[in-house]
Amino acid sequence: MSRIAFVLAFHAYALGAIAYLALLSSGREGLVWTARVLTGAGWVLHGLGLAVLLSPQGFRPHGVAQSLSVIAFLLVGLLLAVELRTHAPVLGAFVAPAAVAVWLPALWAGPADQALAGPARAPILVFHIAVALAGLAVFAVATGVAVAFLLLERQVKGKRFGVLFERLPSLELLDGLNQRLVIGGFVALTLTLVTGLWIAARSDTARSLQAVEITTAVAWLVFAALLQARLLAGWRGRRVAWLTMAGFGLLVLSFVGTYGPGGVR
Questions:
Q1: Where are the domains of the chain?
Q2: Mean pLDDT of all residues in 149-176
């Protein structure tokens, strides 16, 4: 049942992404609700499929395929919330295709059939994984907003007022949205590090820091510096957008190192 729901959801996402891209290029208002309905229907189907798949596992995703599926689900949910809240549906053109691209490898991968050990079902570990994936999804949306900001700023500075200038919201709105998303993602990333350290401290085996943990800590420092620069130094615009993208790149490296064909470490 979950496989059928996933396939239907993926096709709905793909059609919704096409509608968002068409909205960006043409500006036809009728495409707004077409994109929202297709994407929303796919999100509901995706959620049902995840519930069926993950409930026997204690809602802990296992392996790269399930983790990517959860990230795509969170990405789409955040997209719908952000574009409805900001009344800027064209932002979907920068996020919806990313959700499709993220989920595509997961559909090709085979199902993970390894049984989870008792300690792996511990609530703190489930919470740790949940906030880690949620933070990654939030920073992915923030990165999409940062890309939109940089493209729009380039048009404005070059005085080439093309499609992006006509369709995208103002630079101020994009910059403010980036700030709110980064704050939310930073909270999730902080909880990820704290719970990860707590789990490691309770482990019976002593070990040194792993590369993925160091990468995550560096990403935390990047976003901490970004927020400090915003709040104390008044940084805005281009520098913040580039720092957002750099921090997200570090988190992607951490994700690749943590999740893989062999599952979660």
A1: 1-113, 122-265
A2: 84
